[in-house]
From TrEMBL:
Catalytic activity: ethanolamine = acetaldehyde + NH4(+)
Entry keyword annotation includes Lyase: yes
EC number: 4.3.1.7
Coiled coil: none
Domain of life assignment: Bacteria
Record-listed adenosylcob(III)alamin binding positions: V162, E183, C217
Oligomeric and partner information: The basic unit is a heterodimer which dimerizes to form tetramers. The heterotetramers trimerize; 6 large subunits form a core ring with 6 small subunits projecting outwards.
Cofactor binding remark: Binds between the large and small subunits.
Name this polypeptide is given: Ethanolamine ammonia-lyase small subunit
Family the entry assigns: Belongs to the EutC family.
Role according to the record: Catalyzes the deamination of various vicinal amino-alcohols to oxo compounds. Allows this organism to utilize ethanolamine as the sole source of nitrogen and carbon in the presence of external vitamin B12.
């Protein structure tokens, strides 16, 4: 039996090159790279090597704390306080994630019992992401938060994992914490930033039994290709309002920022 003839619709399919060009325009993933014999084209191999080098550099590049602090100071919420984890250097930070979750010294962090929210800017696994996006994202968050929300002085944390922020929030005496942290670099993006929201009923509850189930995450923030500052800030502000109303964050707190106006849209974060 002969194979069925292709329909006119199949005949109108783009040629292979045009087909992959269309798909590549929708993603940063490496797709349709072609081949030369049994291998990738030299240009694609060199692109991969360059992306791998950029990802490694993003992990190991030390954070310029003074530069970030100067830009954060312009936000007008106080002089930034610099803290570090118990990881002595970048190598130990990468080998010992547990040390990155615990601060070395918080004596410089004041107690601010009348503050509602703390913002911690952490280098994480991509100091480059915090350098590129941290101050601008923090400004967008300040613009998006309700006017009655009061802020603690900003904290810049180095060799830091997300959980280090719990100790900072407890020291500050706040109930709502936003950690802006560099995400693990990939071969498509080396400077992506994430926001982790944690809300506890009492500041003393921070760093005591807090798990990832108690947090909400907004990731892939790296305009223009990734999530933009304004959109990320809008989601974060909605979650802050919802967490304060609900009395907790994490799995019980939902992002309803994209809901249509009316009804649930007026009750952000409840789900």
């Amino acid at each position: 039996m002969s194979a069925p003839e292709r329909s006119d619709g199949d005949d109108r399919r783009p040629a292979d090159g045009a087909f992959w060009d269309v798909l590549r325009a929708t993603t940063q993933s490496r797709i349709g790279l072609g081949r030369t014999g049994d291998a990738l084209p030299t240009r694609r191999v060199l692109e991969f090597s360059a992306a791998h080098a950029a990802a490694r550099d993003a992990v190991h590049q030390p954070l310029d704390v003074d530069d970030v602090a100067a830009r954060v100071r312009e936000l007008g919420i106080g002089d930034p306080i610099a803290v570090t984890s118990r990881a002595a250097d970048r190598g130990e930070y990468l080998r010992r994630p547990d040390l990155g979750r615990v601060p070395a010294d918080l004596s410089a962090v004041p107690t601010v019992p009348d503050a509602d929210v703390a913002i911690v800017l952490a280098d994480g696994l991509s100091p480059k992401a915090l350098t590129d996006h941290g101050a601008a994202l923090a400004r967008a968050i300040l613009d998006a938060l309700p006017p009655d929300v009061t802020l603690a002085p900003p904290v810049i944390a180095t060799q830091a994992r997300v959980a280090l922020g719990d100790h900072v929030a407890r020291a500050l005496g706040v109930r709502t914490l936003l950690v802006l942290i560099g995400e693990r670099p990939g071969l498509s993006v080396a400077d992506s930033l994430g926001i982790y929201l944690t809300h506890r009923a009492d500041p003393e509850d921070f760093a005591v039994g807090v798990t990832d189930a108690h947090r909400n995450c907004i990731s892939n923030i790296h305009p223009p290709e990734g999530l933009g500052y304004a959109d990320a800030a809008r989601i974060a502000a909605g979650l802050v309002v919802g967490a304060r109303r609900l009395g907790r964050s994490g799995v019980d707190l939902k992002d309803t920022s994209r809901a249509e106006l009316g009804g649930d849209a007026e009750r952000p974060g409840l789900g």
